[in-house]
């Protein structure tokens, strides 16, 4: 009797919970990768600790929890209105739907995750699905662990805290602080159990779900334990248009490596390299990834009576989760993975393990050779034909491709001068300069602030790109858009050199939708010890923001040089379709 | 200057570099008037001092005082910027041959009132002297002994500033920036390893080692510095001073510190042609801002910037067809004719450059006429020269003022002066240099220039430093050196013995002369004992042993200062051996001498035995001297007794 | 039109010493900030005027002009100094004219206009030769007036902050500037500030820190990501080092990137330009005044690339923004559009003094 009425209340709780989460997301202006899964996690975590508690106490809590919930919900209503963009609403709607279904079906609803994914996927960009996915995950979790309202109340308190903080920072500062502390302790407590609970779950899920989105959900799971407290303490230091982009920079996440015993060492190594920016630059990252995969394939041992493709896929998924957790994948990497998966699925079911490995490794080699190496060569030839003697070529930052182009052109006996533009925050350009000078190219180095000063002497601008998006805009390292703009103002042609394996099917119109937040400390001037910025963490009003990418609209780019041809960047979709037919990636 | 004399920042600028790196140019005009990027050196230093908040400057000239004096007077007349805030007095003394002399002079004249800045005329910097000096004062509050803070600029190891000049190795306490070791490589030294004394590392929690420091020839000095120079007659250069302080720190009760310049501060010293060229370039590239090629003139913006660091004075005229590539500075009233190509060069005022001339990596002073079709590569042409048609001047040729090079002449790395004699000499010298480049120059213009001046500085293989080439004794092979050292030690000891000087002074003298001829420590131990045993007193004296005895007694402190460790004892014994062989008056008395030493427990027993062993091994002439044998028998008995006694 | 170049001869030595002091103060960094420089320039000229032995309009003009020229020659980049000189010259002329009018009792208005005509047409001597009497007395209050204006100008510029910046806006400012800082402080604190660090990083960071402690929420971005954030910015506030005749602007290096981005997203750009920064120069390119700053900011000297022979490192001092990049100039007389600057010029200065 009491149990059933319990049930009903729990459902209510669940429903509220779902709504809250959905709005939570709405409020946070796009999927919050850090928090949601984190919360989703709490519950699977809790059963372990909550095994023993006897029935009676939940009731007491539940009352409390109820009004907590209401309060929270009310609070949100206010906040949401503040800044809600189109896709947020979409996300929210989707979430609500999901929530309803959750109420109906209760525990078992792995089924309808696939159902409502496509709906949103159609409308919103990839990471939009993720929100929905999150919700579904969350709901499932809720359903599973609905037994303890305890968990829910915890959650409500968290949210309460978060609300208070996000909506009115200055006011609820102290409260937030207190919360943070509690959270810290709790997180600490939980950390232990997750290790027990989270992992098996992760593996279990990873296997059936093929799409990258689910991967993301899992991804956030691992680093979580340490993040939770951080989220609170740093919430005030987040530029709110970028809330969705923040990712903890602490190397804590590396600790979780220990748990994942079944990761290949090469993968772990790569993960660390990515996280610590040892491997950077989209080409380098791509090659490093493929290399790691190759090693993984080589050493992969097929578990008994599993189909090779499936087994490896599972393995692959978990390793990728780990890698992406270390650093978000670049377009080149995602493409490489697509390609790899494609060939994995192409394998006949009854393939012999040895052959399979052989073919895969060959495919990888081929990819590196064709897509990166030869492509680079082709591009360098194409650009060389555009460089004429006495030119003054301006380039920005450090791109392996551009470097190759320039060195080749110089070796081919062209007489030109290179203007290397760097920015204080990214020292990469200085390395580029060093390498060019070492090969005897006459160079000019300027900071990006000096653009206006040299632009009138520049004859061509050649830029590298992180990715070329379907809508023709170029995702380049922060500052390249500025360059393109300045060049356009002086009517200097802007060439973007970009191999087709960096084309990706995302669309993006500004640097906000997708970006990567660099380490804010990089902004601080290294060579004066008492820089005024150094204590920004203690100063709630001061927020250094270090963007990694920016997006150059097609209108500012004269042409994209690919290995296929020199194209206007609006013809990116064509290239993608072509490639799809060609390589199936 | 209305400000009361006390807190006016004082600076001493030494107007000579006491070396001939810039011969023959520095012969015919004072170093301070050598133009760098068209501006005499003296302007840079004065401007930067004024800019650094210095109130009073003492220019100390050892030669051409009058010239400098009226140069200063003129620039004060036409209201140079520095003349407003700074009062400049020119000191002259032709007697001074080295920087050390100058400092002694200054001490004698009592010119400096307190803390002061010591800079060379060849310094170009934009640092704020006032602030640095303040820093040094604070430091002195902490450490009373702080004598000098050396100012260094950190640069890349390959950087020409240290690449060509002799690089420094510096070890310092990381927390206090106290200099612990200062080692200057010899020019073109092949030495691969530096021995870092263990105690340096042991006694300090954290030790910084620097190898890529460019010495800007700037030092912040405490009032104690000039006296120190006067006390130590053999401090000739700043490096002597540094080494002196470091070697016997506790005796002189003073210590050295160093400071590195921040990223935006520039400091360099023009020590030779290569650094000259580098500094010119840096000035053109504006690293030394606010110092520039317009320094010293009240007017600015008389130069037009033409990109690629090409600057030309407004009144200069270029022909339409001539081309300036990069890093070019062209003075006022200079005219450049058709199809002439200039790159990486500085051209002074009122020059006339003919048609189809190629000038690269060269420095051309005022009023030079270069006729048509000449080639000038990596060379220096001083004022009022005329270069005839079709002549080729390259590979670091240096042409002093008022030389007329007749048409069609080919000059490679020669030194031309107005007198023919020099020309011959320099020509033959140059040939040797030519050969040097072949293996040195890596093609580019600059390198020939290094090649040139490297060989240049190597031609006089100076010992301790640039400064002390002539001053510190003439170049001589090391053995001679030690002999001189020995002689000096003997003299000082003898004097000390006669005049009954305090041992500390003697130690001090020995140390200073030790490092002046840079003698290794073990050698010192050796020679000290050697000297003790070969003092003239012994020679004439009848009763040698007694004399030896009381000599030993008298010089006990000296001995104990040097003969501490096992190894030093062995040195000592070897010295005994050596002297017993060399000096007739000790002939056959080795045993007794040893006994005396033993009694004065300078030497201990096991080392004696050990020594005795290797005596026998490399059967030395004294090994089987009766006295010696006796002594050792006695020794062994003694030891046995002591053994069975306990 | 300008008398012989030798500026020395028009001045006697004590003035030259004064000027030397002034110049060296600025060079040695004792005197900083355009406003202070302007004020002390006024003081300098005042002493020159009051100490010069015969103070007819002509002598005064020559003396002041010579002083101005001398300073300008020594410090070509302190445009403020020459602006102040022009203001004083203008004052002298006005006084002289007024006096002339009193002498020959003509109606003010017509006299003015006539004088104007003559002035516009004739050489200076012709117009100044007219009166031969002491102008020091009347000039004194002129100068006092000018000083008053200079002192108040900053506050009056900042006074308008409320009209331009209001709550919940996102404001972007570039680099460090005392004026911009005051302006931003004067505005209601509820807006969000994005501070893009300029070439002088340390100052920018210091400014960011000060503002944030003053309770403004500041986001510091590197000069590379200006374009990226621009699309979210409501207004751009910059302080200029000189406002040029044509409505163009001269300011810290890297400004053009900001204004270009702003224009690209059509974000209004407010240029803070107190009148003493307005100088009668019509330029279409920064190269006209630009000077090289030390390149340390771009590349540290320690790196040996910068010693290698075929590398050039540049760091310009100024950057140039054409009139169409500026939406509004905020002077101490209120806002005015770039196209109107020329008019302000002719109100402030006498056409004959445009080039000293």
TrEMBL record, chain A:
<feature type="region of interest" description="Disordered">
    <location>
        <begin position="1"/>
        <end position="68"/>
    </location>
</feature>
<feature type="compositionally biased region" description="Basic and acidic residues">
    <location>
        <begin position="1"/>
        <end position="13"/>
    </location>
</feature>
<comment type="similarity">
    <text>Belongs to the eIF-2B alpha/beta/delta subunits family.</text>
</comment>
<feature type="region of interest" description="Disordered">
    <location>
        <begin position="83"/>
        <end position="126"/>
    </location>
</feature>
<feature type="compositionally biased region" description="Basic and acidic residues">
    <location>
        <begin position="196"/>
        <end position="230"/>
    </location>
</feature>
<keyword id="KW-0396">Initiation factor</keyword>
<dbReference type="InterPro" id="IPR000649">
    <property type="entry name" value="IF-2B-related"/>
</dbReference>
<dbReference type="Pfam" id="PF01008">
    <property type="entry name" value="IF-2B"/>
</dbReference>
<dbReference type="GO" id="GO:0003743">
    <property type="term" value="F:translation initiation factor activity"/>
</dbReference>
<keyword id="KW-0963">Cytoplasm</keyword>
<feature type="region of interest" description="Disordered">
    <location>
        <begin position="162"/>
        <end position="234"/>
    </location>
</feature>
<feature type="compositionally biased region" description="Basic and acidic residues">
    <location>
        <begin position="52"/>
        <end position="68"/>
    </location>
</feature>
<dbReference type="GO" id="GO:0005829">
    <property type="term" value="C:cytosol"/>
</dbReference>
<comment type="subunit">
    <text>Component of the translation initiation factor 2B (eIF2B) complex which is a heterodecamer of two sets of five different subunits: alpha, beta, gamma, delta and epsilon. Subunits alpha, beta and delta comprise a regulatory subcomplex and subunits epsilon and gamma comprise a catalytic subcomplex. Within the complex, the hexameric regulatory complex resides at the center, with the two heterodimeric catalytic subcomplexes bound on opposite sides.</text>
</comment>
<feature type="compositionally biased region" description="Basic and acidic residues">
    <location>
        <begin position="162"/>
        <end position="186"/>
    </location>
</feature>
TrEMBL record, chain B:
<feature type="region of interest" description="Disordered">
    <location>
        <begin position="460"/>
        <end position="480"/>
    </location>
</feature>
<comment type="subunit">
    <text>Component of the translation initiation factor 2B (eIF2B) complex which is a heterodecamer of two sets of five different subunits: alpha, beta, gamma, delta and epsilon. Subunits alpha, beta and delta comprise a regulatory subcomplex and subunits epsilon and gamma comprise a catalytic subcomplex. Within the complex, the hexameric regulatory complex resides at the center, with the two heterodimeric catalytic subcomplexes bound on opposite sides.</text>
</comment>
<dbReference type="InterPro" id="IPR016024">
    <property type="entry name" value="ARM-type_fold"/>
</dbReference>
<comment type="similarity">
    <text>Belongs to the eIF-2B gamma/epsilon subunits family.</text>
</comment>
<keyword id="KW-0648">Protein biosynthesis</keyword>
<dbReference type="InterPro" id="IPR056764">
    <property type="entry name" value="LbH_EIF2B3/5"/>
</dbReference>
<dbReference type="GO" id="GO:0005851">
    <property type="term" value="C:eukaryotic translation initiation factor 2B complex"/>
</dbReference>
<dbReference type="InterPro" id="IPR029044">
    <property type="entry name" value="Nucleotide-diphossugar_trans"/>
</dbReference>
<dbReference type="InterPro" id="IPR011004">
    <property type="entry name" value="Trimer_LpxA-like_sf"/>
</dbReference>
<keyword id="KW-0963">Cytoplasm</keyword>
<dbReference type="InterPro" id="IPR035543">
    <property type="entry name" value="eIF-2B_epsilon_N"/>
</dbReference>
<feature type="domain" description="W2">
    <location>
        <begin position="479"/>
        <end position="645"/>
    </location>
</feature>
<protein>
    <recommendedName>
        <fullName>Translation initiation factor eIF2B subunit epsilon</fullName>
    </recommendedName>
</protein>
<dbReference type="Pfam" id="PF02020">
    <property type="entry name" value="W2"/>
</dbReference>
<dbReference type="GO" id="GO:0005085">
    <property type="term" value="F:guanyl-nucleotide exchange factor activity"/>
</dbReference>
TrEMBL record, chain C:
<keyword id="KW-0963">Cytoplasm</keyword>
<dbReference type="GO" id="GO:0005829">
    <property type="term" value="C:cytosol"/>
</dbReference>
<dbReference type="Pfam" id="PF01008">
    <property type="entry name" value="IF-2B"/>
</dbReference>
<dbReference type="GO" id="GO:0005851">
    <property type="term" value="C:eukaryotic translation initiation factor 2B complex"/>
</dbReference>
<dbReference type="InterPro" id="IPR037171">
    <property type="entry name" value="NagB/RpiA_transferase-like"/>
</dbReference>
<protein>
    <recommendedName>
        <fullName>Translation initiation factor eIF2B subunit beta</fullName>
    </recommendedName>
</protein>
<keyword id="KW-0648">Protein biosynthesis</keyword>
<dbReference type="GO" id="GO:0003743">
    <property type="term" value="F:translation initiation factor activity"/>
</dbReference>
<dbReference type="GO" id="GO:0005085">
    <property type="term" value="F:guanyl-nucleotide exchange factor activity"/>
</dbReference>
<dbReference type="InterPro" id="IPR042529">
    <property type="entry name" value="IF_2B-like_C"/>
</dbReference>
<comment type="similarity">
    <text>Belongs to the eIF-2B alpha/beta/delta subunits family.</text>
</comment>
<dbReference type="InterPro" id="IPR051855">
    <property type="entry name" value="eIF2B_beta_subunit"/>
</dbReference>
<dbReference type="InterPro" id="IPR000649">
    <property type="entry name" value="IF-2B-related"/>
</dbReference>
<comment type="subunit">
    <text>Component of the translation initiation factor 2B (eIF2B) complex which is a heterodecamer of two sets of five different subunits: alpha, beta, gamma, delta and epsilon. Subunits alpha, beta and delta comprise a regulatory subcomplex and subunits epsilon and gamma comprise a catalytic subcomplex. Within the complex, the hexameric regulatory complex resides at the center, with the two heterodimeric catalytic subcomplexes bound on opposite sides.</text>
</comment>
<keyword id="KW-0396">Initiation factor</keyword>
């Amino acid at each position: 009797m009491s149990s059933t009425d319990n049930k009903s209340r729990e459902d209510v709780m669940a429903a509220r919970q779902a709504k809250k989460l959905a709005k939570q997301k709405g409020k946070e202006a796009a999927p919050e990768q850090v928090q949601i899964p984190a919360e989703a996690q709490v519950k699977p975590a809790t059963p372990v600790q909550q095994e023993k508690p006897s029935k009676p106490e939940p009731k007491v809590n539940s009352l409390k929890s109820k009004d907590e919930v209401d309060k929270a919900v009310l609070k949100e209503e206010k906040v949401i209105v503040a800044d809600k963009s189109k896709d947020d609403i979409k996300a929210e709607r989707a979430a609500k739907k999901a929530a309803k279904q959750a109420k109906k079906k209760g525990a078992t609803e792995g089924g309808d995750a696939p159902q409502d994914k496509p709906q949103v996927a159609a409308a919103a960009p990839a990471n939009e699905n993720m929100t929905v996915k999150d919700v579904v995950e969350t709901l499932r979790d809720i359903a599973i662990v609905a037994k303890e309202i305890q968990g829910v109340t915890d959650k409500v308190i968290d949210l309460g805290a978060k609300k208070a903080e996000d909506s009115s920072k200055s006011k609820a500062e102290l409260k937030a602080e207190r919360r943070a502390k509690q959270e810290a302790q709790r997180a600490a407590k939980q950390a232990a159990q997750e290790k027990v609970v989270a992992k098996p779950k992760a593996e279990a899920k990873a296997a059936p779900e093929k799409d990258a989105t689910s991967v993301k959900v899992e991804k956030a799971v691992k680093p979580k334990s340490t993040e939770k407290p951080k989220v609170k303490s740093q919430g005030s230091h987040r530029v709110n248009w970028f809330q969705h982009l923040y990712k903890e920079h602490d190397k804590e996440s590396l600790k979780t490596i220990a748990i994942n015993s079944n990761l290949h060492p090469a993968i772990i190594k790569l993960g660390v390299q990515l996280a610590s920016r040892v491997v950077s630059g989209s080409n380098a990252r791509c090659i490093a990834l493929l290399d790691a995969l190759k090693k993984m394939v080589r050493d992969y041992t097929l578990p008994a009576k599993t189909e090779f493709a499936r087994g490896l896929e599972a393995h692959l998924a978990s390793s990728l989760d780990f890698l992406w957790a270390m650093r978000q994948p670049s377009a080149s990497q995602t493409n490489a993975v697509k390609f790899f998966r494609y060939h994995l699925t192409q394998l006949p079911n009854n393939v012999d393990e040895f052959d399979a490995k052989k073919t895969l490794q060959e495919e990888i080699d081929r990819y590196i050779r064709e897509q990166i190496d030869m492509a680079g060569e082709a591009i360098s030839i194409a650009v060389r034909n555009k460089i004429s003697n006495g030119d003054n070529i301006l380039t920005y930052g450090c791109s392996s491709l551009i470097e190759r182009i320039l060195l080749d052109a110089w070796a081919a006996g062209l007489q030109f001068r290179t203007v290397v533009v760097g920015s204080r925050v990214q020292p990469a350009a200085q390395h580029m300069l060093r390498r060019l000078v070492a090969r005897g190219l006459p160079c000019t180095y300027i900071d990006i602030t000096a653009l206006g000063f040299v632009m009138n002497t520049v004859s061509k601008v050649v830029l590298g790109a992180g990715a070329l998006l379907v809508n023709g805009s170029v995702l380049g390292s922060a500052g390249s858009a500025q360059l393109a703009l300045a060049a356009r103002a002086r009517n200097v042609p802007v060439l973007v050199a970009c191999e087709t394996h960096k084309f990706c099917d995302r669309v993006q119109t500004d640097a906000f939708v997708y970006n990567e937040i660099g380490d804010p400390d990089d902004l601080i001037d290294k060579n004066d010890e008492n820089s005024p910025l150094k204590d920004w963490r203690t100063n709630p009003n001061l927020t250094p923001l270090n963007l990694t990418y920016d997006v150059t609209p097609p209108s500012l780019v004269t042409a994209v040089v690919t290995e296929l041809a020199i194209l206007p960047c609006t013809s990116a979709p064509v290239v993608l379709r072509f490639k799809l037919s060609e390589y199936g990636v | 200057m209305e400000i009361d004399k006390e807190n006016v920042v004082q600076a001493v600028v030494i107007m000579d570099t006491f070396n001939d790196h810039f011969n023959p140019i520095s012969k015919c005009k004072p170093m301070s008037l050598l133009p760098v990027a068209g501006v005499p050196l003296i302007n840079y230093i004065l401007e930067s001092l004024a800019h650094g908040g210095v109130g009073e400057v003492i220019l100390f000239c050892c030669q051409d005082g009058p010239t400098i004096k009226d140069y200063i007077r003129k620039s004060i007349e036409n209201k140079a910027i520095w003349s407003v805030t700074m009062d400049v007095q020119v000191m002259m003394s032709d007697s001074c041959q080295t920087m050390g002399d100058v400092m002694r002079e200054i001490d004698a004249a009592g010119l400096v009132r307190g803390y002061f800045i010591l800079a060379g005329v060849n310094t170009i910097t934009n640092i704020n002297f006032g602030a640095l000096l303040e820093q040094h004062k604070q430091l002195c509050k902490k450490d009373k002994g702080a004598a000098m803070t050396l100012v260094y600029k950190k640069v890349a190891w390959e950087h020409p500033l240290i690449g060509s000049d002799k690089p420094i190795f510096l070890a310092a306490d990381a927390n206090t920036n106290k200099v612990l070791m200062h080692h200057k490589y010899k020019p073109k030294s092949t030495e691969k390893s530096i021995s870092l004394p263990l105690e340096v590392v042991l006694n300090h929690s954290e030790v910084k080692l620097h190898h890529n420091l460019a010495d800007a020839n700037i030092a912040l000095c405490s009032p104690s510095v000039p006296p120190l120079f006067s006390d130590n007659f053999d401090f000739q250069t700043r490096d002597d001073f540094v080494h002196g302080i470091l070697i016997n720190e506790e005796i002189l009760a003073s210590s050295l510190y160093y400071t590195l310049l921040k990223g935006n501060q520039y400091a360099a010293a023009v020590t030779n042609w290569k650094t000259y060229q580098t500094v010119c370039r840096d000035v053109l590239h504006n690293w030394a801002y606010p110092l520039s090629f317009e320094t010293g003139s009240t007017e600015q913006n008389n130069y037009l910037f033409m990109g690629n660091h090409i600057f030309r004075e407004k009144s200069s005229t270029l022909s339409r067809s001539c081309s300036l590539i990069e890093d070019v500075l062209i003075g006022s009233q200079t005219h450049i004719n058709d199809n002439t190509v200039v790159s990486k060069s500085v051209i002074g005022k009122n020059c006339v450059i003919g048609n189809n001339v190629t000038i690269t990596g060269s420095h051309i002073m005022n009023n030079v006429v270069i006729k048509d079709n000449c080639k000038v590569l990596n060379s220096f042409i001083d004022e009022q020269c005329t270069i005839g048609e079709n002549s080729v001047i390259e590979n670091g040729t240096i042409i002093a003022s008022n030389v007329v090079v007749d048409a069609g002449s080919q000059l490679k790395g020669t030194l031309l002066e107005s007198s023919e004699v020099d020309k011959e000499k320099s020509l033959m010298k140059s040939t040797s240099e030519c050969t040097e480049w072949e293996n040195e120059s890596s093609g580019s213009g600059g390198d020939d220039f290094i090649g040139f001046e490297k060989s240049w500085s190597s031609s006089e293989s100076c010992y301790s430093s640039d400064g002390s080439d002539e001053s510190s004794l003439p170049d001589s092979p090391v053995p001679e050196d030690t002999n001189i050292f020995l002689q000096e030690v003997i003299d000082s000891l003898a004097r000390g013995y006669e005049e009954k000087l305090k041992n500390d002074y003697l130690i001090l003298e020995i140390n200073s002369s030790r490092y002046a001829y840079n003698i290794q420590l073990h050698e010192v131990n050796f020679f000290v004992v050697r000297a003790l045993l070969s003092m003239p007193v012994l020679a004439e004296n009848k009763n040698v042993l007694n004399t030896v005895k009381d000599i030993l007694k008298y010089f006990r402190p000296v001995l104990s200062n040097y003969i501490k460790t096992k190894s030093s004892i062995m040195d000592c014994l070897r010295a005994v051996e050596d002297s017993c062989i060399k000096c007739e008056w000790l002939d056959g008395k080795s045993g007794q001498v040893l006994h005396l030493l033993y009694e004065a427990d300078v030497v201990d027993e096991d080392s004696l035995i050990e020594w005795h062993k290797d005596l026998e091994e490399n059967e030395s002439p004294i090994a089987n001297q009766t006295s010696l044998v006796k002594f050792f028998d006695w020794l062994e008995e003694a030891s046995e007794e002591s053994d069975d006694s306990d | 039109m300008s008398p012989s170049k030798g500026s020395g001869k028009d001045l006697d030595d004590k003035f030259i010493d004064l000027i030397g002091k002034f110049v060296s103060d600025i060079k040695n960094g004792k005197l900083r900030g355009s406003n202070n420089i302007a004020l002390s320039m006024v003081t300098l000229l005042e002493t020159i005027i009051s100490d010069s032995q015969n103070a007819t309009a002509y002598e005064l003009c020559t003396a002041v002009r010579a002083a101005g020229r001398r300073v300008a020659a020594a410090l070509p980049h302190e445009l403020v100094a020459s602006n102040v000189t022009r203001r004083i010259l203008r004052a002298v002329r006005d006084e002289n004219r007024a006096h002339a009018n009193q002498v020959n009792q003509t109606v003010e208005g017509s006299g003015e206009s006539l004088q104007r005509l003559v002035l516009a047409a004739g050489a200076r001597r012709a117009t100044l030769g007219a009166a031969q009497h002491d102008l020091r007395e009347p000039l004194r209050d002129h100068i006092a007036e000018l000083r008053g204006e200079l002192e108040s100008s900053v506050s009056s510029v900042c006074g308008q902050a409320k009209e331009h910046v209001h709550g919940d806006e996102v404001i972007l400012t570039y680099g460090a500037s005392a004026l911009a800082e005051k302006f931003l402080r004067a505005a209601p604190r509820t807006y969000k500030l994005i501070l893009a660090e300029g070439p002088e990083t340390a100052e920018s960071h210091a400014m960011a820190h000060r503002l944030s402690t003053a309770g403004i929420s500041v986001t510091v971005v590197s000069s590379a990501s200006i374009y990226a954030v621009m699309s979210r910015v409501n207004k751009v506030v910059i302080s200029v080092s000189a406002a040029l005749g044509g409505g163009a602007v001269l300011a810290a290096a890297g400004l053009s990137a900001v204004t270009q981005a702003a224009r690209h997203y059509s974000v209004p750009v407010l240029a803070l330009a107190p009148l003493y920064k307005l100088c009668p120069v019509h330029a279409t390119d920064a190269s006209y005044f630009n000077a090289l700053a030390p390149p340390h900011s771009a590349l540290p000297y320690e790196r040996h690339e910068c010693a290698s022979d075929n590398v050039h490192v540049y760091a310009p001092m100024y950057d140039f923004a054409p009139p169409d990049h500026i939406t509004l100039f905020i002077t101490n007389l209120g806002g005015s559009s770039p196209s109107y600057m020329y008019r302000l010029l002719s109100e402030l200065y006498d056409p004959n003094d445009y080039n000293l």
